[in-house]
Amino acid sequence: MDIRFSGASVSFGERTVLQPLTLTLTERRIGIIGLNGSGKTTFARLINGLVKPTTGSVSVNGLDTVRDEGAVLAAAGFIFQNPQHQIIMPIVHEDIAFGLKNRGLKTDEIERRVAAVLVRFGIAHLAKRRVHELSGGETQLVAISSIVVTGPGILILDEPTNQLDLRNRRLIENTIAGLDEHAIVISHDLPLIERFERVLWFHDGKLVGDGPAPETIRAYREAAEC
Amino acid sequence: MTTRDLVLVALFTAIIVVLGLIPPITLGFIPVPITAQSMGVMLAGCIIGAKRGALAYVLFVLLVAAGLPVLSGGRGGLAIIQGPTGGFILGWIVATYVTGLIAERLVKDGQNEIRQFAAFFIASVVGGIVVLYAIGMPWVSMTTGAPLTDVATGSLAFIPGDLLKAAIAALAARAVLIGYPLLPHRA
Amino acid sequence: MLNGLNVEGSTPLHRMSVRTKLAILLVLGVALYFFSSLFVLVPAFVLAAGIYFTTGLTVRDGLSRLKPVLFTIVILLIATAYLASIREATEAFFRLMALVLFAGAVTATTTTGDFIDEITRLLQPLDRLGLVRAADVGLAFGLVLRFVPDIFNHYQAIREAHRARGLKVRPLTILAPLIILTLKDADTIAMAIDARGFRRPRSDRNR
To answer: Taking CA atoms, what residue in B is nearest to C142?
Structure first.
């Protein structure tokens, strides 16, 4: 993975939401922290091109998020805070299969890949279930599966444990730990990212902390307690 | 069409389906019970506008045609579209478009609440009643052989209920315009 | 929550393509209006009834589906008999019922999935012209089925909240909150769809 920000900033009219940033992300586990409104979500969305930089540029593995929009979306999957909004088909396996439908794959190949990803995340028993009947954690896993099945090498997760109870939280924590893909996780749930290689801390649209998880999180905690 | 518009259309169609699950209300002076779903045309046109509202009904009619029991009372299928009320079902699409067109033109920001209510009410009556019946009644006449004038006379019984629906829809549309404006209208 | 009205089976009608069935229905729907002779309309009715009741529907099921339409038809035809002539009412009855029964047979032998796939296919020419995205139909259809249960839950939650506050539950007080609550989610849902790369332009589709 090689994500590069080159003087990338985001402004909406007069308001600058994210100050110009130049950095490179290569680590396997990266956390993003900050208060609400700090720019952390905008930063995450710059990575897969959901938000385009007002100045500068962002590239993912050599692909520019503006020029190579489609390829960037294929390389970096985004899992939103509320998995309910992310799943668009009524039955679990339909939603996961939907991502593969427009790729000209044969039906049995699609079936195979869907089955494989369901097994991978331990939710094969949920294949025919209706999405609205699932628990928070199960829905989150379905959302993750539906993104992973299309083969992105990078996953960006926005507050994945936000709405989960203790048991479901554990489930997601273990799932993220076990991912082969690179994971970039925005989280208020600090224990979730405690053992990550690198954590970026945003405040007021600026990057105010960038380093190994323990130090950056400690600094963030101290600042929050003042 | 933007993805957002597509989602708005689909969500509104889903709302119309849910309206069909709400039990009808019987009011003393009105011969036919009022179903929430029958206000759908007026609501769609007044809330998401002509184009999206009409598309929401195209999608709804496709659901019915595909054999889903989404009409209130758990009805669905091609048989109903083929039957005497088929003209009304297909007419919903046009009626919503007209309601939306009028609402988009008449509603303005900064109008007082009476004027906005009147705008939505007029849009609902012209689209949801006049245009709808203009399409539905000839179909009834053609399929059953009943003379058009008699069909029209018979339909008069539904008008009081329809006017009440238009009023309710207008009030609801106004509340939505304040809470979460989606109608393309003049600033 | 929503199951289609089709029934399992392998009758000729089941095996016929959706396109053919719809085409026949369309042609019949126009053609039968050119005939007023009972020698044509009665056999048509009998044939349609035969097809309808051999699709695999139980007689009870088949009749209960017809009830609402039948009710409307009978009332209107009584009016026709009185206002026009008994002859016209009789013709209308056999013609209408033939079409309604055949349409019912098509619905009973066609899955909702196949129907929507066919609509998508029929839109391909317009897709090529850049006027519509044929794939949007399947996507929109899925979205409706996906969110109906959630919206119904919203409705029940709003109703309970009203009751808890001692408010009488009236359509007026429920409609606006329900609609706002539902449509507010449109933005995030749309963003999730875009993030999954589902509505890319044609040139980008072969990845």
So the answer is: B10
